[in-house]
Recover the amino acids of this structure.
């Protein structure tokens, strides 16, 4: 009931520029429902409980916001997690609960040995651990994501800002602004 009232209250609210084509993010996001409906939900591509992602009615979008100690960040595109269809790349879907990998590991989905604190499955291709992970969720669909190294993404963002700053010397520096600016900053 509370969720319906909250959705009604958010109905007219839109996100600030440059994402005004999206509704405002949800102060109390829920797990994604089954069947999925358009809206802001706990991020099924993330292994944490502090990220929400927008579902546009047909697919998960790259737009997320993250919970900080004070509030939700502004909306920004996710440069780390990208949804992947395992069947499209010729591998099986991950199990609901991954097992520990045998020694030596064999091809398949296993508990993630690279980021064990995240409680997710990672795919071993028979030779090496891949960047394909499947976050473990208490509810909602089990999705597969290609997870890029956050340090690599930050380096790319810094290089892009430096390049933009070189072409626009009057541009305001946002160096070191992680997480993205808070609403109202």
């Amino acid at each position: 009931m509370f969720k319906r009232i909250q959705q009604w209250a958010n109905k007219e609210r839109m996100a600030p520029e440059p994402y005004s084509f999206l509704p405002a993010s949800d102060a109390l996001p829920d797990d994604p429902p089954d069947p999925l409906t358009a809206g802001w939900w706990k991020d099924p591509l993330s292994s944490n409980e502090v990220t929400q992602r927008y579902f546009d009615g047909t697919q998960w979008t790259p737009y997320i916001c993250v919970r900080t100690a004070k509030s939700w960040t502004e909306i920004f595109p996710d440069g780390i997690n990208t949804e992947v269809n395992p069947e499209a790349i010729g591998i099986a879907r991950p199990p609901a609960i991954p097992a520990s990998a045998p020694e030596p590991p064999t091809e398949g989905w296993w508990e993630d040995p690279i980021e064990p604190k995240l409680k997710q499955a990672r795919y071993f291709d028979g030779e090496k651990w891949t960047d394909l992970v499947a976050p473990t969720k208490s509810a909602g669909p089990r999705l597969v994501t290609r997870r890029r190294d956050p340090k690599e993404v930050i380096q790319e963002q810094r290089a892009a800002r430096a390049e933009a700053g070189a072409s626009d010397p009057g541009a305001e520096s946002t160096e070191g602004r992680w997480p993205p600016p808070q609403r109202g900053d």
In short: The chain has a mean pLDDT of 78. The chain has two domains: 2-78, 84-147.
